[in-house]
């Protein structure tokens, strides 16, 4: 690693390639979402980077919390024709994309299941694949188009100034939607991205009055939009002013708005949420909970809550190494809350990186679980200070946060009306079978020892079929989870088949009732398989649901929160600990 006058020149030894990095003048670890912008240019000199920074990229980075990366081509330029006899620049760029979160090339320290250690999470910039955007300029546009066409799952959007998509890239492309801002690009480039996005002409902007037969050359901009997914679009722009003006326009319309969601095998185009406005408030580094730690959370209170009424509270825990804003953009529970009239809080873990689901001191103390105390105190605090109905507190979370939501529901069921977590790969090893009896998991052991016999917990759990433990097999993370909740809820626990045997199935154990639900309208190929399980009580109740979302990876799909909420809102927790359905 070499430092060059404010820029960082990073050498990635595994592929013997370099790139310049520019980090905004912010703390690298904050509760706010960070965007990544990867800029491909025609040469590898420092002067070209400095010129682009001066022309607007530095200002954009500082204003909007954007990490900038400038991969360098080899001396003979980019292999934008995808010539098999030349270096594989597609793979090289992909590797560099995954290296922009830190300036050094040191290996990341991970735990026994491959998750980065806390120290590693804290020293990196968190730049998720959902918001990495690609910009091609000064001879780098063709390479940007080629990468977007052939590796679409790795970026959220592409912008190119000039150039055209290589013929080999079109022949190798998967025709997966990629939002594209094209400035003076070739006809073939516009045609390809319109086809990939299944976008139709929606709007023309001309420098003067024109008729419907106006030629493309006379029009400043033509906007093509997918008729069922407004996030999949192509802007074909002929004239747009200076580089700085183009940057501002592309950021405002595209880079700040769209995101790549890991649903569908190549990913789908989705959107960020608008977190501005006085409905949202950040509590940062507050000691108001009185637990000896300072905590941060993002709170959403809809403006039009019914006056004089207490409303439900939804607590959503972020995934590992993520933060409150990222959790809000992923789940969008607050958008649902406006329609359904409930309050949403996105807490940041005690260590501002992850949650102590294994009771191993991950959040800074081994004397007790600081995250458990934190979330219980946060629920109590919000219930006392806001118009919250204490009988209707619901828990959700994603990944590591889904594990933490389960921990609180296990250990404090008297406070929680329903659990609606998403994509938890806990406990055990997400990649392979591992013997893990329930009484070896601290939270599960304690919960089963302490629970009252009448206690039940309504659970709606969503998992993706492209997750590592699907199809579900014996001794997988998913089997341990559903066996616990079935035991807790007095539901028959049936054996789960070993991996690859004839009795295995995607959901492990099929539900007592199985139904299919559609995905979001903008993604017509998506669907859910809901496995409903019923208690053995005198009056059988549907208190556990294992929900598989077809072709979803580690992600929250648009309908995940909707179906989960529709289930959870049926229930309330009575003062005696029992659960009843709302009238």
Characterization of the model:
This protein is α/β, with parallel strands linked by helices and 583 residues long. It has 2 domains: 2-271, Rossmann fold, CATH 3.40.50; 280-581, Rossmann fold, CATH 3.40.50. 26% of the residues lie in helices and 23% in strands. It contains 14 helices and 25 strands. The strands form 5 sheets. An 11-stranded mixed sheet has the order 1-2-3-5-4-6-7-8-11-10-9, sandwiched between helices. A 6-stranded mixed sheet has the order 14-15-17-16-18-19, sandwiched between helices. A 4-stranded mixed sheet has the order 20-23-22-21, sandwiched between helices.
CATH topology of the largest domain: Rossmann fold
CATH class of the largest domain: Alpha Beta
Q: What is the CATH architecture descriptor of the largest domain?
A: 3-Layer(aba) Sandwich
Number of helices: 14
Helix content: 25-40%
The average pLDDT score comes to 93
Strand order of the largest sheet: 1-2-3-5-4-6-7-8-11-10-9
Low-confidence stretches: none
Biggest sheet record: 11 strands, mixed
CATH superfamily of the largest domain: Alpha/Beta hydrolase fold, catalytic domain
Number of strands: 25
Shape: globular
In whole angstroms, the N-to-C terminal distance is 64 Å
Structural class by secondary-structure content: alpha/beta
Rg computed from alpha carbons, rounded to a whole number of angstroms: 25 Å
Number of domains: 2
Q: What is the beta-strand fraction?
A: 15-25%
